[in-house]
Design brief:
The complex is a heterodimer of chains A (about 220) and B (about 350). Chain A has about 220 residues and is α/β, with parallel strands linked by helices. Chain A has two domains: about 80 residues, Methionine synthase domain (Methyltransferase, Methionine Synthase (B12-binding Domains), Chain A, domain 1); about 120 residues, Rossmann fold, CATH 3.40.50. Chain A has nine helices and five strands, in the order H-H-H-H-E-H-E-H-E-H-E-H-E-H. Chain A has a five-stranded parallel beta sheet, sandwiched between helices. The radius of gyration of chain A is 18 Å and the shape is globular. Chain A starts with 9 loop residues before the first helix and ends with a helix. Chain B is of the alpha/beta class and about 350 residues long. Chain B has a single domain, classed as TIM Barrel (Alpha-Beta Barrel), CATH 3.20.20. Chain B contains 15 helices and ten strands. Chain B has an eight-stranded parallel beta sheet with strand order 1-10-9-8-7-6-5-2. Chain B has a two-stranded antiparallel sheet with strand order 3-4. In chain B, strand 3 and strand 4 form a beta hairpin. The chains are: A alpha/beta (about 220), B alpha/beta (about 350).
Chain lengths: ~220, ~350
């Protein structure tokens, strides 16, 4: 996946570190400045994202899990990350998409809470997955339609509300009915969702948080490759 | 052997520290009431007489110890200009904020809760319930606390950023929210109801203790000071995690705390000496998804953990009873409170 490994120069390491730190410290201006420096120093844009920004988001995620950061902090860290990505994006070389499963992501119908979903999306994108974001309040039929278009990949669906959880089971049934269930791995997540619920509705996995979602998608990727 | 108390006698005695015949039980029957009379959720949300009829019918079916009028946490912000949309059979959703641009904050005016937005729906529902069943049960109305109200004026994600990027604006919106809450509380009390503050956005699942301390706690405390001055009982419900803020919640002036994702044993140990606790059968897993036996088992555990809390305990759900909850599960919860232990 990554380009041929060269030695990381001290200066490059320092810039990657600055990218990670700016994200971790909610410093949007710092992230933009570090991204510009990365380009000036000839650092590959993809590496700046995966080894700099997403490392920063991993620190953020860790702080979230430890109860140091909460939603406002995560949003501001994400803002810093996106601002740097905007600088880097025009310089991303086409990666050919070889072997990288597309991920369809959305919040199930009846629920408009999408902060968590957006963070998962962000982390998946940072890890290199092409993400198709269907937004929030997404009907089962929209997931199925997108799945049909993509033919295979990952579906990540979430809800923050207990009342809309049954929509996830309906999605699994609808994928089966459409003959798409075997072509897609389905992961579910969100506040009231649990591993046992995933098992109950025969989803493939439960993602407890954004990093977990990336770990799972990556593991599926490696099995497939 | 004395006769069973009415829910009103029980809650009245309970809240004033007098003896009661059993632990009070208050499943948070909110939008589920619409199902009891078979009306769409949007009609319950927009028609005061329908909402009132629904809650009267729900109380006659379940005889819980408190009627809890509620539609959605957007209704206060809506009265100040936030726009919502109304799916036919689901709760109203956020559509566009009252304060899209920070400069819009200056345009927010003080509104009359008897006229603004759908607030008259709540007031009519309260009056209806009080006139129909108010002799036997207290009628409460759940309204968003200042933090959740301000978040809905701005859009939650934008407001979350304001806490860091524009704290002055956040405080302005909190003041506006507080003003409406005070006015609405007075109108609720005048209609015969008890205002209950609910603050889902200020939950420990969403914001840090530090944010809660600066942006939620002082405004909630001021709202409760007003509610107490109006002669009512301050009750605070925060769903999600509350372990990080339970001590602050207890020092807000609230007489009772309704909690969700915190162990009742922990809540009792930390704040049981200063406030009454209320909780916390799991709404989704147990009430919606479980059997009546599952409900009884979990409710019995809540009682075992917290019924001996020094300032009292009310058996309740951790959050709203899901709309499609099987009635048998709600009955099972109330029976558990009724069964001598």
């Amino acid at each position: 996946m990554a380009k041929a490994k060269g030695q990381i120069r001290p200066q490059e390491a320092e810039i990657l570190d600055a990218l990670a730190r700016a994200v971790d410290l909610m410093d949007e201006e710092g992230a933009v400045a570090a991204a510009k420096r990365a380009l000036d120093e000839g650092i590959d844009a993809y590496e700046a994202i995966t080894k700099g920004l997403s490392k920063g988001m991993a620190l953020v995620s860790d702080k979230y899990e430890k109860g140091i950061y909460f939603v406002p902090e995560i949003l501001l860290c994400a803002d810093a990350m996106y601002a740097a990505i905007d600088v880097l994006k025009p310089h991303l070389k086409a990666r050919g998409g070889a072997g990288v499963s597309p991920v369809v992501i959305g919040v199930i119908q009846g629920d408009v809470h999408d902060i968590g979903k957006n963070i998962v999306k962000l982390m998946l994108e940072a890890a290199g997955f092409p993400v198709h974001d269907l937004g929030n309040d997404v009907p089962v039929s929209a997931f199925v339609e997108k799945a049909r278009e993509l033919k295979s990949g990952v579906i990540a669906v979430s809800t923050l509300m207990s009342t809309t959880m049954p929509g996830m089971a309906k999605l699994i049934d609808a994928l089966k009915a459409a003959g798409l269930r075997d072509s897609f791995k389905v992961m579910i997540g969100g506040g009231p969702v649990s591993a046992s619920y995933a098992q109950k509705i025969a989803a493939d996995a439960y993602g407890a948080n954004a990093m977990d979602a990336v770990r799972i998608a990556t593991a599926w990727q490696e099995v497939r490759a | 052997m004395t006769a069973e108390m009415t829910p009103k006698e029980r809650m009245g005695n309970f809240l004033s520290g007098k003896p009661v015949d059993r632990v009070p039980c208050v499943p948070l029957i909110l939008n589920h009431a619409a199902r009891v009379i078979g009306v769409p959720i949007s009609e319950h949300a927009t028609n005061g007489s329908t909402m009132g009829r629904a809650h009267v019918a729900a109380w006659r079916r379940y005889r819980q110890d408190l009627v809890t009028i509620f539609s959605d946490t957007g209704i206060l912000s809506e009265a100040l200009g936030t726009r919502l949309h109304f799916p036919p059979d689901d709760v109203p959703r956020f559509k566009a904020p009252a304060v899209a641009d920070p400069s819009d904050a200056g345009k927010l005016t003080r509104v009359d809760p008897r006229r603004a937005g759908r607030l008259p729906v709540y007031l009519e529902a309260i009056r209806h319930c009080v006139s129909e069943v108010g002799g036997d049960v207290f009628v409460s109305c759940c309204i968003s606390a200042p933090f959740s109200t301000a978040a809905a004026l701005r859009g939650t994600a934008v407001f979350a950023r304001d806490l860091y990027k524009n704290p002055g604006l956040a405080h302005d919106l909190l003041e506006k929210g507080l003003e409406l809450i005070e006015d609405l509380s007075a109108a609720i009390i005048e209609a015969g109801g008890i205002p209950v503050l609910v603050d889902p956005v200020a939950s420990g699942s969403v914001i840090s203790r530090k944010s809660y301390e600066e942006f939620a706690h002082p405004y909630t405390a001021r709202a409760f000071a007003r509610i107490a001055a109006l002669g009512s009982v301050p009750i605070l419900h925060i769903c999600g995690r509350t372990s990080t803020i339970i001590d602050l919640m207890a020092s807000s002036g609230a007489a009772a705390l309704s909690v969700d994702l915190i162990s009742l044993a922990e809540a009792k140990a930390r704040v049981g000496n200063s406030v009454c606790l209320m909780g916390n059968v799991r709404p989704a897993e147990t009430l919606l998804g479980g059997t009546p036996d599952d409900v009884r088992r979990e409710a019995a555990q809540c009682l075992a953990d917290c019924a001996d809390s020094p300032r009292g305990f009310i058996l309740a759900t951790g959050c709203e009873v899901p709309i499609e909850t099987p009635p048998a599960n709600i009955h099972a919860l109330i029976e558990t409170a009724r069964t001598p232990r």
